[in-house]
Amino acid sequence: MDARVLTISRNGPFRGSAATFGALIGSGFRRYATYRQATIAGTFTNIVFGFLRCYVLLAVAEGAAGHSPAGYDAEQLATYVWVGQGLLSVIGIWGWTELADRIRTGDIAADLLRPVSPVTSYLAADLGRALHGMLTRFGPPLLAGALFFPLHTPTRWQTIPLFALSIVFAVMICFGCRYMVNASAYWLQDARGPLMLWTLGSGVLGGLYFPLRLLPPEVTLALTVATPLPSLLQTPLDVISERDGPALQAGLVGLQAIWVVLTLALAALVQRRAERRLVVQGG
């Protein structure tokens, strides 16, 4: 057999790095593409919960004065719900415990021997996972919602490009946060406690269960500026539903870009500190 290993060439380091990163993205995509039954079951579950969430939020809209709670009309709320259901598997705020498990079992030692840092390799694999989710699990919930509810159709030319960019940023921010939560196993050995807190906090403060705009304005502003969590779902959903004007719409995506840099930098810092700890322990 012809076994080929991707290496970084001295004559073209950027080309070699890009090829390696692309290969890791492809491997992440192929990994999740093998679970066809899980994909179908997960999509069906997202659609069922989409109906429940949509009817609840539409009932809130009916009971609100002027039928526009926090500035959302009925079509924008329906769009918020169904696009959110499609993005759940793309952004992937739940379920990833691979790093914590490998730390607990000691398999992380093999990752540290590889030429690519764990943060980079896991990020590439996660981007492949997100690409698979976008191609297989984003469309069906959105189609189901469009069949049974009137959805908001974007009216600005910049909405779709900003939405696509916002999704990419949300995936990277979510990865950075999940990596740091998983990396707590370097110090705690068992990361189930932090993972449980992440599961609860990311859903509530990320805008999954209800739009954060329903909270008092000062609370929403504080959460958006001081934490990366609203950038996971709230920001992409506000962008596609055109809840805000063009300037604020672009500003929210710009804030996401800042959180991408911060979360990935913090993840890399945590990893370096963890490696120093392993050396001190003799690992």
Automatic annotation (TrEMBL):
> Which Pfam families does the entry mention?
ABC2_membrane_6 (PF06182)
Which InterPro entries does its entry note?
A: ABC-2_transporter-like
The keyword Ion transport belongs to this UniProt entry's keyword annotation: no
Q: Does the keyword Cell cycle apply?
A: no
Which branch of life, at top level?
Bacteria
Which ranges does the record mark as transmembrane? 38-58, 78-96, 135-153, 159-181, 193-212, 247-270
Keywords from the named record: Membrane, Transmembrane, Transmembrane helix
Q: What is this protein called?
A: ABC-2 family transporter protein
- Per the UniProt entry, what species is this protein from, by scientific name? Actinoplanes aureus
